[in-house]
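Teaching note: in complex prediction, the entire set of molecules is handled at once rather than each chain in isolation. The prompt given to students was simply: 'Predict the structure of this complex.' The entities are:
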Amino acid sequence: MSARLRIAVQRGGRLGTKSLELVESAGFRVMRGANDLLYRVENAPIDLLCVRDDDIPTFVEDGVADFGIVGRNVLEERGVGGLTEVMPLGFGRCDMKIAVPAGRAYSGAESLRGLRIATTYPRTLSRFLERAGVEAEIVSMRGAVEVAPRLKLAQAICDLVSTGATLEANGLVAVDTVMRSEAVLIRGARIADAELAHVAESIVQRFRGVAASQGAKYVMMNAPKASLPEISRILPGAGAPTVTPLAGNDDAVAVHAVCQESVFWETLEALRAAGASAILVLPIEKMM
Ligand code: PRT
Ligand code: ZN
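The expected output is the structure of the full assembly:
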């Protein structure tokens, strides 16, 4: 049997589906067979190893998998060791936050001195406290951290937050950010099989292309020449736009730009207010 490269992804959970979508958007056709631990890619020598997210760094570090897709928070908690974060992937975004019961005063990490703080991320929290020069007691929990203050187990918590609904439902308020997280591609010290180096390279390049095109939009419009500086300022994350003349109109130009950030209705309104017309926003499928 010829060698195959392995990517460890979360089975189910918050990252599983998005991880598979990323692999498929990169042009790798995933065969979902009866074996839900190992999925084969049919058009490249790649297998997906579907496991618990907490196990992914270990698998990659031990060379059982060549790459892994995991939350940066998991990597950080474990200590990076022989692992490298290749790139952020643009999904699974969340913040690790310190939260306290509503009404409790907070004026920086100093306010945590001597408190009990519940978390499932004791090492990350410990480093945060160390950096701030604050001593506090860390209560390590496996889950349901948000109920700890109500149970008088702790006076504060450190947990992941995405919408904030969980904190709110438990009468807690986020007061500080320990780290920002999102899904990241990680790799170990070396690719197990040297023959697969080009496959590894292609995974990285294609993922980069997919991640870069996510959220990015191609924006086109006509605009008076005089508004160009204003329009460049409004376009989110666009770099230098392409400007071309319009036939039979010396005062106006066509402006094309790739916007790296989301283009909202407010952006379009601002563009129109600056004199732009015939504004089109198109999705980008691939980018390299
Ligand atoms: O079974 P397995 O061990 O694989 O999964 P898991 O239960 O450990 O992880 P899972 O699927 O919950 O999360 C996987 C990864 O998703 C995490 O490691 C993060 O990188 C990322 N992620 C993004 C989140 C969240 N957003 C998130 N909101 N992980 C957890 N949460 C939890 C948080 O802990 C809190 O309980 O959601 C709640 C808060 O959500 P909001 O929306 O109410 O703020
Ligand atoms: Zn987990």
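Point out the following to students. Residues 217-283 form a domain with the Alpha-Beta Plaits fold (CATH 3.30.70.120). The chain is about 25% helix and 35% strand.
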